[in-house]
């Protein structure tokens, strides 16, 4: 499924995916969620990283409330599972994803942001989970992903009390890894995506697929999975070349920031 509400632009090896329903604050209709799923499913194999951002004054106002139908329990369950399938492709799809955040990052918009690997927020960003006051619950994976960023206690408070985190508070709490001046989130996200795209593909794969699983495992299993992944990664020709280049003085040293 395609949608005029989602723009996909491929610049070299970076996919730029833009929510383009600015007039509706990029509210996530079913069509937009399916278009997002399709975009990640069909990314050309030359793409090595993606940036996702939102048109207009806000990143995303969450679920399109005008589509909130009176669903029976089974329909509600399937609707939530549709979101899960789409956001699973963001988190565990073909490439690392950097989210460029500004303005409202609320409800399902926060669920989408939390499925990305790196979040860059500008100083206008604010985070909220208005589901509590709308009489509903998160359904796009938020109860799994958001506590991993900020902890279950903060998420409980946000949903129970309607608490809104501003950009600085959000960065401190763990929503975003980067906080940048107003209007610069996209540029910073693109710069980071380009940097991520230069990594060995297997290293990025390990970070997307092995690290989150290891974090869920008991320590003994985690150490073993880590050893498996380390063995696979270092055996790749790419890894051998990169290490050789360093030893030959041809690769960049780590610089003090
Ligand atoms: C929308 C939506 C929406 C805006 N669904 N149409 N999400 C929410 O509860 C957040 C609801 N939205 C807001 O609180 C505000 O719109 C914002 C803070 C995001 C932005 O405020 P503002 O003043 O810039 O815009 P606005 O005037 O409120 O909205 C502009 C238009 O977008 C307006 O439509 P118009 O036809 O009158 O111009 C709004 O109705 C429309 N709009 N947000 C539908 N969300 C998988 S489960 C996830 C569950 C959730 O995400 S629940 C949280 C839903």
Automatic annotation (TrEMBL):
InterPro entries: ClpP/crotonase-like_dom_sf, Enoyl-CoA_hyd/isom_CS, Enoyl-CoA_hydra/iso, Enoyl-CoA_hydra_C
Domain of life, source organism: Bacteria
Pfam family, one: ECH_1
Signal peptide span: none
UniProt keyword list: Lyase
Family indicated by similarity: Belongs to the enoyl-CoA hydratase/isomerase family.
Protein name: Crotonase/enoyl-CoA hydratase family protein
Source organism of the structure: Variovorax ginsengisoli
């Amino acid at each position: 499924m395609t949608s005029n509400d989602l723009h996909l632009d491929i610049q070299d090896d970076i996919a730029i995916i833009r929510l383009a329903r600015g007039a509706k604050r990029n509210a996530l209709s079913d069509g937009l969620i399916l278009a997002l799923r399709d975009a990640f499913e069909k990314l050309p194999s030359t793409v090595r990283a993606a940036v996702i951002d939102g048109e207009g004054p806000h990143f995303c106002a969450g679920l399109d409330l005008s589509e909130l139908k009176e669903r029976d329990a089974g329909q509600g369950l399937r609707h939530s599972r549709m979101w899960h399938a789409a956001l699973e492709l963001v988190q565990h799809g073909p490439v690392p994803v950097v989210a460029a955040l500004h303005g409202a990052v609320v409800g399902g918009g926060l669920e989408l942001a939390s499925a990305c690997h790196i979040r860059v927020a500008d100083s206008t960003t604010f985070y909220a989970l208005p589901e509590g006051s709308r009489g509903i619950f998160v359904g796009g994976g938020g109860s799994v992903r958001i506590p991993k960023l900020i902890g279950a206690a903060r998420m409980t408070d946000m949903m129970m009390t309607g608490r809104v985190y501003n950009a600085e508070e959000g960065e401190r709490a763990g929503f975003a890894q980067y906080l940048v001046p107003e209007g610069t989130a996209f540029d910073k996200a693109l710069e980071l995506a380009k940097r991520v795209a230069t990594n060995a593909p297997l290293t990025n794969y390990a970070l997307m697929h092995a690290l989150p699983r290891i974090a869920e495992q008991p320590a003994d299993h985690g150490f073993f999975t880590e050893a498996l992944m380390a063995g696979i990664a270092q055996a790749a020709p790419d890894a051998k070349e990169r290490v050789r280049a360093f030893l030959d003085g041809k690769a960049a040293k780590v610089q003090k920031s």
